[in-house]
Amino acid sequence: MRSSRPNPLTSPLIRAFLLGLVLPAAVVESAGEPGTPTKGGSYFDSSTGGEHLSGQQTGTSTTLTSSINPSSFNQSTTLTATVVAVGQAFGTPSGPVTFMDGATTLGTGALDGSGVTTLATSSLTVGSHTLTAVYGGDTNFATSTSAPLTQIVNAEKQATVTTCNSSSNPSWRSATIRFTGHLILYQSATRGSKIDSAGVGLDYALPTGTMTFYDGATPLGTETLSPLLEATLTISSLAVGSHAITADYSGDSNYSGSTSDVLTQIVTPGEEVPTLSTWGLVALVGALGAAGAFLLGRGLLAG
């Protein structure tokens, strides 16, 4: 007759004790062997140096920046996408990133060892553009899309040419000199047609901004551009010698800046005006007085 006594090995308390001894031995922890399971079903990927969940892709975050914003039409702008792993995962994502202008593809680049890729473009039209960077993912990292970047493209700036002239050249030391910078305009940045009359044939309003005058690399002063497209600097402090004078127009949102050719201003010592000391003046008065007395005496004797 079979005994009805319970098997002690089937007791819940004994089974829990035995499982506590055996289960840790069945779990292999390895952070250095490629493809070896670790706790939680993760594995170490030697290609990225990271730990990933088995059968799952790690989440990523993508950011997008622009080198110039706003930019001008036909101006090259570099877009930079950076992809990083999120959460507690580590390693560097690899694979392609597609740069988008709305639904239009601008180009594709591959991530480097730092998770970065760039795209230089000069094809954006005038106006506002909603740009994104779309990471395509790889074996271990999931796809992600950057937040929208609003890129502003302004119309092409019109070209300018700056000239500089002097009111007196050569000039004497301490003499007042007027340097005048004048702006010449063209109908396009390629200088296709010169505009002789201010405001005639312009795509924009008259230029604004400032003009800075330099003596070599030393700024002499800055003046505001007038409606006549001129700025004048008055100065009397130039030292004796040769001076390399230039006028530099700052430009504005519609017109490009420009710098004049060098104007060589010559400052000479000038004619020295003789001066008399106090004793010299006394001697002169005395001499004149003696001469007058002598002439007066001769006149009396003659009479």
CATH architecture of the largest domain: Sandwich
Number of domains: 3
SSE pattern, N- to C-terminal: HEEEEEEEEEEEEEEEEEEEEEH
Q: Please state roughly what percent of the residues sit in beta strands, choosing from under 5%, 5-15%, 15-25%, 25-35%, 35-45% or over 45%.
A: 35-45%
CATH C-level label of the largest domain: Mainly Beta
Can you characterise this structure?
Strands 4, 6, 7, 9, 10 and 11 form a six-stranded mixed sheet that branches. Strands 13, 16, 17, 19, 20 and 21 form a six-stranded mixed sheet that branches. Strands 12, 14, 15 and 18 form a four-stranded antiparallel sheet that branches. By secondary structure, the chain is mainly beta. It has helices spanning 12-26, 278-302; strands spanning 42-45, 50-53, 60-66, 71-72, 77-85, 96-101, 104-110, 116-121, 127-135, 144-145, 149-154, 160-166, 171-172, 177-186, 194-195, 210-215, 218-224, 230-235, 241-249, 258-259, 263-268. The protein is elongated and about 175 Å long. The longest helix is centred in the last third of the chain and has 25 residues, at 278-302. Strand 14 and strand 15 (194-195) form a beta hairpin. The chain contains two helices and 21 strands. The model is unreliable at 21-44 (pLDDT under 50).
